[in-house]
Amino acid sequence: MENSDSFVKMYLQFSGVYMSLSQVYLDDLWSKCLNHIKTNNLIESIVFNQYFEDTFLTSLNDTKANVVVKTKLHKVILTQNETLISEVLSKFLNKNIGCSIFLENEVDSNSTTPIISDQYSTNLIPHYTFDSFIEGSSNKESRSAAIACAYMPGKFYNPLFIYGNSGLGKTHLLNAIGNYVLTHYPDKKVHYTTSTDFVSKVVSSIKNNTIEDFKRDLLNVDVLLMDDVQFLAGKEKSHEIFFHIFNDLVNHKKQIVITSDRHPHEIKGLEDRLISRFSSGLSVGVDSPEFETAVAILKSKMEHQSLEPDLVDDEVINYIARDFSSDIRKLEGALNRIIFYSINFGQNRQIDLKTAVSAFKGQSYNDKNELNANKIKRIVSDYYGLTRQQLVSKSRTKNISNARHIAMYLCRKHLDLPFTKIGDEFGNRDHSTVMSSCEKIDKLLKVDFTLSSAITDIEKQFK
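User: That's the sequence. What structure does it adopt?
Assistant: C-alpha cells below.
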C-alpha cells in the first residue's frame, strides 16, 4: 500500500483542499501503526494481543484520529496509551496527531472526518479546552488570564507568559486558548508549536533555503502558542528569527502566549532582548494542585475515560490526591496504575484502598519519600530547633533568618526550583529576595567552615 500512501499525499499537496479518506487507506494506516507497536515491543505482547488487535481507525483529520473499540475495558486500556498511539500515528503521517478512543455506539458509522492539506496546521489537541481544565487556587490566575487572551486575542496581556513546573497544565491552557479562538473566531489562524519543533523547522528551513517561507507562514497567524520556550536557550539563530516574528506579531496586535518551566528572568541562555519582550506583557504562574483540586482532576479523568463514578472508592481517590499531587501527570499515572492493576489482579468490582496499596507495592512510583520543598523545610527547621511556621514567617530574628536563607539555598540547589516558586514556599516572598538569599549563602560557603559543615550535615538527611 506504499503507492497508495504516496498517491494520497501527492493529491493532498496538489489540490490543497479537503478530502475524505477511504476506509481502505485508514485500515492500511492503522495496520502499519499496530505492527510498529507490536514489533518494537512498545506494549507488552499479552496486553497488545488482548486489547489492541481488535480495534479500528475510523476517521482522521488534520489534528486528530478516532479509534473505535468494542468494550469499555478495551477503551480503558487504549485510553491509557493515547500518547503512545498519537506518537506512532504522528510518525507515519509526519505531523502531530492526537487521538481519541470511542466505543462503537459512541460514533456515527456514516460520518467521515476530512483530512486537511499540510498548507496550514493548528497542531491543537481538541479535548484540551477551558471546560475540561479543572480550576483551583493553584491555577486560577493563569486560567483567568488565558480566558481573557482567548476572548479578545491581541487586546489583553500580550504576550501572556505562563510558567511553572512540568505537568501542571500549561500545555492544556495553551490548547484551550487555541480551541476557544477557533470556535468563536473561525476566521482567525491559530498555531501551536513547541520550542523544540520551532528550532527543528528553523534548521530544516535554513538547510532547504526556505526560511523566508517559514517566517511568512508564522507572520500570517493571528494567535501563536509556543510551549516550553526555555528550550530556545542557546539557539542563537532561532533566537533571532523568533525575536523578529515576535515583534511583528505584537506590533500587528496578534496574540502570543508562551509557556516555560520558570519565570522569564530565570531562563539561562536566552538573549536579554527576548527576556525583555517576554516580560513586557503579563507573567502568571501555575502551582501543584491543592488537595480539593487534585480530587476534582481525578474525577474528571475518570469521567473522560467513561469510567463509572463508583468504580473507585472515595478513600482511594483521597489517597491518590494526597500522595501524588506534585503534578497532574503523576495523578493521572497513579489512577491508570490502580485501574490497570484492578483489571488484572483485583477481585472486587470496586477498587478499594487495599487494592490501591497493593497496586503501588514495590513501585518507586509513590513520591512520598522524594526530596521536595516541604521535606527540606522540615529537615532545616528540625536541625535549628525551629518550627516550620517560624521558617516561613516574616520574622527577621538572626537565627530564623539564617535558617530560612539556608533552606531557600538548598531548594534551589537540589530541586532547581524557580526563584518565584521558592518564594511561594517561604511565605510568598519576592523572587529577588530569594535570589539574594541564595547568593548570600553561596558566597558564605567559600569562607565559613561552620556553615559548610552544617549544610553537609543537613544534606545527609536528604537521603
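The first strand starts at residue 56 and ends at 60.
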